[in-house]
Amino acid sequence: MNIGIIVFPGSNCDRDVRWATEGCLGIPTSFLWHETTDLSGYDAIVIPGGFSYGDYLRCGAIARFAPVLNSLISFVDKGGKVLGICNGFQILTELGLLQGALTRNKNLHFICDRANLSIESTKSSWMKNYKKYDSISLPIAHGEGRYQCSNDVLKKLQDDDSIALRYAHNPNGSINDIAGITNKKGNVLGMMPHPERACDDALGNIDGKSILSSLLS
User: Fold this and answer.
1) Active site residue: 142, 149, 194, 199, which one?
2) What residues have CB less than 8 Å from 165, skipping those under 6 apart?
């Protein structure tokens, strides 16, 4: 098992992810600069949180044109596993690998807190260590985490069992309390909460460890 973490100018959670995957779980993990085009040899790719290209235009809107993401589309088509966390989720929607869009929080303020979540689907292998409707708690830190989509897209997500996570108490105004979704095949997961920040017993919360440890089997 080898994991690649894509690094953009402005990424700031790349080392957090590597600490969780390699330091806590012992999975060999490498950083991939955004100009990389060769994803061969990797079993999973993580797009971390942060402020890719400063998010000056719209979160993820510039990053989606990075050379590595052209290769990511082929990687996904071949069944490769991809996890987009926070800004990574935004990038996946801009790229079209996940449906919908992330917009400014309802209260227009940056939120840094802990969110209670419900596991809504275990279809994806990313969620196989949970049972449906399990309750977990993960950190959140975002200013544009309000998930929005059309009614038709929402129905398709529901029909495809692609709503992975819902907020117990919606902090940002996301439609249908959505905190994370997958593609239809289930190999791509995008989520606003940060599982890599909930992997250490010393911090009193390891609820995110089960998402990342799904890579081990």
Assistant:
1) 194
2) 117, 118, 119, 120, 178, 179, 180, 191, 193
Nearest alpha-carbon partner for 139 in 162, 122, 114: 114
Encode pLDDT of 131-159 as tens digits: 999 999 999 999 999 999 999 999 999 99
Query: In the annotation, is 199 catalytic?
Result: no
The catalytic residue among 94, 120, 144, 196 is 196
**pLDDT tens-digit readout, 7-37:** 999 999 999 999 999 999 999 999 999 999 9
Catalytic hit among 13, 59, 86, 149: 86
Is 144 considered catalytic here? no
Task: Give yes or no: 13 in active site.
Answer: no
pTM of the model: 0.95
Q: Which CATH superfamily is domain 3-216 in?
A: Class I glutamine amidotransferase (GATase) domain (3.40.50.880)
Residues of the chain where predicted confidence (pLDDT) is lower than 50 = none
Residue 199 near residue 209, CB atoms below 8 Å: yes
